[in-house]
C-alpha cells in the first residue's frame, strides 16, 4: 500500500462543491458555508467539553477566532473538572462532543470504564506534548531517569512508591505504564497507581500523595516552577508523534447530526492549522489559554513547551524534535486506524481486555474517516493519506504499523 498522500487540489475542491449543489465555497469566501439548504448544520450551537490542558487549544481557538461561524455553527466550550465528568456529561447528552483522551473514548466503546456506549472519533486534536514528572525528593536522592528509579523500586517493598495518571484507559495511563515497564518496573506489581484529575496533580505531589505522575501540560511545567518536581521523560520520548487528545462524541450524535459533525470538524481543523501556522500564533494561543476562563494559569507555563522549548527542571534543556503538534499538513488530525488499534493492544497487554478484540473492526467503527474527509474537503488544501495505517518506533525499539496487532500485543515481557 502506497504511503504517498493524495493532495486535495483546487479543482477537486470545486468539483466537490459543485456535487453538493454549490454549498461549499473556496477558503476566504466561506462565510456562508453550509449556512442554508439541506446541507446546513442541523444544530446552531455545539457544546464541546474540555479539560484545562494546553491541548484543548484547537477547540478554544475555533470558538474565539470565529472559525465555527465560518461553517454555520457556534461552538460553546464547557470547562470540566475531570475526565470522569467529561465522560458522564457526554454520555448523558449534556455535551455534544468533547476534547477527550484517545484511550478514554475507546474504553467507553468497549465498556471498560463504565457502561458500553457506541462512540465516534471525529479527529485527533494533537500529537505529543505530555510529560512524566518525578518528585524533587527523588531528584535530590540522585534519581534522574527511569533506570535510576528502577533500582530504587527494586530495593523497596512492592507498592512503596505511588504514581498518578488521569484516567484508567486514558493516554496518560498508557504512557506511564509503557515507560515504567520499559525500565523493568511492573506498573501494577511493583508500584501503586492512582487516578488524579489534571488540575490536581501538582497539589497532590506537593503534599506527598505520589512521587510521580503522567499528565498533559501545563502541569509538568507548573511542577518545575513550583520546585516540587522535574520532567523525567516526555510522552514523545515514549512514542514519537503519538496520538493524544481527540474530538469525540457519541455515534448516535453523528448519525443524527452529520452536517453539524462535519462543520465542527472543519472549524476545529482550521483552528489547528492556524495555531501551527507560526510561532506567533502559538504564542497568542498560549496567552489566550492562560486566562481564567480557560486554564487559569501563567502564560510562562504554556509558551515554552508550546514552542517545543523544554527545560527538564534538572539541568537539561533542548528544542524538541517532536513538539506538540496540532495540524502538520493535516496528518495530526487524520483518524489513523493504527492509532486507535495501538491503544487496544495496550488494553490487552494490561488485562483490560481478556482476549484479543477485533482490532481492525473496532477502529473502523469508531474512527469516522468519512466525516474527517468531508471536513478536510471543506477546509481545502489538506493532504489525505492513502493508507489508514502509519508506522512508529517506540522507546524500546518496538515497531508498530497496525498490521499484526494481536502479535504485537503479545510481544511484551511485562504484562498483566
From TrEMBL:
Keywords for the protein's UniProt record, in alphabetical order: Cell inner membrane, Cell membrane, Membrane, Signal, Transport
Family annotation (SUPFAM superfamilies): Periplasmic binding protein-like II (SSF53850)
Gene3D superfamilies xref list: Periplasmic binding protein-like II (3.40.190.10)
Source species, domain of life: Bacteria
One GO cellular component term noted in the UniProt record for this chain: endomembrane system
Keyword Signal attached: yes
Compartment list: Endomembrane system
CDD domains: PBP2_NrtA_CpmA_like (cd13553)
Keyword Signal: yes
Signal peptide residue numbers: 1-35
InterPro entries cross-referenced by the UniProt entry: NrtA/CpmA_ABC-bd_dom (IPR044527), TAT_signal (IPR006311)
Family, as annotated: Belongs to the CmpA/NrtA family.
This protein's name: Nitrate/bicarbonate ABC transporter substrate-binding protein
Top-level taxonomy: Bacteria, Pseudomonadati, Pseudomonadota, Gammaproteobacteria, Enterobacterales
Amino acid at each position: 500500500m502506497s504511503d504517498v498522500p493524495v493532495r486535495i487540489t483546487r479543482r477537486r475542491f470545486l468539483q466537490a462543491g459543485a456535487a453538493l449543489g454549490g454549498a461549499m465555497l473556496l477558503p476566504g469566501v466561506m462565510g456562508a458555508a453550509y449556512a442554508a439548504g439541506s446541507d446546513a448544520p442541523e444544530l446552531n450551537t455545539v457544546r464541546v467539553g474540555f479539560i484545562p490542558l494546553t491541548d484543548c487549544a484547537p477547540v478554544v481557538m475555533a470558538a474565539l477566532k470565529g472559525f465555527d461561524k465560518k461553517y454555520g455553527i457556534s461552538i460553546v466550550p464547557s470547562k470540566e473538572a475531570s475526565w470522569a465528568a467529561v465522560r458522564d456529561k457526554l454520555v448523558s447528552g449534556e455535551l455534544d462532543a468533547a476534547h477527550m483522551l484517545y484511550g478514554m473514548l475507546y474504553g467507553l466503546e468497549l465498556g471498560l470504564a463504565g457502561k458500553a456506549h457506541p462512540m465516534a472519533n471525529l479527529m485527533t486534536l494533537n500529537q505529543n506534548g505530555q510529560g512524566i514528572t518525578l518528585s524533587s525528593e527523588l531528584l535530590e536522592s540522585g534519581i534522574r531517569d527511569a533506570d535510576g528509579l528502577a533500582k530504587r523500586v527494586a530495593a523497596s517493598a512492592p507498592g512503596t512508591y505511588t504514581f498518578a495518571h488521569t484516567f484508567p484507559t486514558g493516554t496518560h495511563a498508557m504512557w506511564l505504564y509503557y515507560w515504567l515497564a520499559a525500565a523493568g518496573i511492573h506498573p501494577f506489581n511493583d508500584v501503586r497507581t492512582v487516578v488524579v484529575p489534571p488540575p490536581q496533580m501538582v497539589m497532590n505531589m506537593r503534599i506527598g500523595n505520589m512521587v510521580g505522575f503522567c499528565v498533559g501540560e501545563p502541569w509538568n511545567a507548573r511542577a518545575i516552577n513550583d520546585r516540587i518536581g522535574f520532567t523525567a521523560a516526555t510522552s514523545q520520548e515514549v512514542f514519537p508523534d503519538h496520538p493524544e487528545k481527540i474530538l469525540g462524541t457519541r455515534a448516535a450524535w453523528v448519525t443524527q447530526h452529520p452536517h453539524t459533525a462535519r462543520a465542527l470538524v472543519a472549524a476545529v481543523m482550521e483552528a489547528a492549522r492556524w495555531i501551527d501556522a507560526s510561532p506567533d500564533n502559538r504564542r497568542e494561543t498560549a496567552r489566550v489559554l492562560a486566562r481564567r476562563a480557560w486554564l487559569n494559569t501563567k502564560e510562562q507555563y504554556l509558551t515554552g513547551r508550546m514552542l517545543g522549548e523544554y527545560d527538564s527542571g534538572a539541568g537539561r534543556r533542548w528544542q524538541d524534535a517532536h513538539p506538540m503538534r496540532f495540524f502538520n499538513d493535516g496528518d495530526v488530525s487524520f483518524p489513523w486506524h493504527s492509532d486507535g488499534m495501538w491503544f487496544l493492544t495496550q488494553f490487552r497487554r494490561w488485562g483490560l481486555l481478556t482476549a484479543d478484540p477485533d482490532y481492525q473492526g473496532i477502529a473502523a467503527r469508531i474512527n469516522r474517516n468519512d466525516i474527517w474527509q468531508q471536513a478536510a474537503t471543506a477546509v481545502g488544501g489538506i493532504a489525505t493519506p492513502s493508507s489508514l495505517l502509519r508506522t512508529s518506533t517506540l522507546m524500546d525499539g518496538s515497531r508498530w504499523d497496525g498490521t499484526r496487532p494481536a502479535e504485537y500485543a503479545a510481544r511484551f515481557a511485562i504484562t498483566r
